[in-house]
Amino acid sequence: MESFGRIDILVNDAGVVLSNDQLIVDTDEDEFDRVVDTDFKAVFFLCKRVAKIMIEQEQGNIINLASVVARVASTRMAAYAAAKAAVVQMTRCMAFEWSRFNIRANCICPGYIDTNMTQSTLNKEKAYEAITHPIPHNRKVGDPMDIAATALFLACDCSDMVNGFPLYVDGARSIW
C-alpha cells in the first residue's frame, strides 16, 4: 500500500510439514500447531487483512496455495493435509463472500513439486516411486514453473470467470 497505493493480487504460498515425518499417533500438539499456524491460520489472517483493502477498492484477486493432499490421503502428513484442505474450503468461502466486491479467490493445489521442502523425500528411490506411481502417463513430479504459470493464469483477466476453484496441478494424481 505504501509503494503503490493499492493491492491487486495476493498470493499466499506458505507451507511447512511435520519436522520429524511423524505418524498421527506420534504428533504432539506443539508440532501440530506449528503446521496449522503456518499453513492455514497465517493464510486466513493475511487474506482477512488484505481483503479489507480489496473491498474498499472494489477489486482484487486472491490466490492461495493448498496441496494435492487436500484431496488425496497420504501417510505422515495428517496435519499438513488437514491444514491444506482447510485452505481449499476457506478459499471457496472467500470467493462466495467477496465476489460481490469484485474479488476473486482461488487456490492452486500442487502435487509433488521439486523444491527444497520435498527434496529429501524425492531423493529416496522408494519414496519417489511411491509418489510418482499414481500419476498417470508421465509419472514425474512437477517443476516450480508449473505453479508459477498457474498463478499467472489465475492473476490475469483471462481467468476472470474462475472463482472459488481449487486448481490441481499434479499430473492428474488427484483423479484417482
Structure notes:
There is one protein chain. By secondary structure, the chain is α/β, with parallel strands linked by helices. The protein has helices at 29-57, 78-98, 119-122, 125-132, 144-155; strands spanning 9-12, 60-65, 103-110, 166-169. β2 (60-65), α2 (78-98) and β3 (103-110) form a beta-alpha-beta unit.
Topology:
Layout: E1 9-12, H1 29-57, E2 60-65, H2 78-98, E3 103-110, H3 119-122, H4 125-132, H5 144-155, E4 166-169
Parallel strand pairs: 1-2, 2-3, 3-4
Features:
4-stranded parallel beta sheet; alpha/beta; globular; 176 residues; single chain
How far is the first residue's CA from the last residue's CA? 43 Å
Instruction: Please tell me how large the radius of gyration is.
Output: 17 Å
Q: What composes the largest sheet?
A: 4 strands, parallel
| Strands ordered across the widest β-sheet | 1-2-3-4
**What structural class results from the helix and strand content?**
alpha/beta
Question: Helical element count?
Answer: 5
What share of residues is helical?
40-55%
Q: What is the global morphology?
A: globular
Mean pLDDT: 92
Q: What are the low-pLDDT stretches, counting only 5+ consecutive residues below 50?
A: none
Order of helices and strands: EHEHEHHHE
Q: Using DSSP, what is the number of strands?
A: 4
Proportion of strand residues: 5-15%
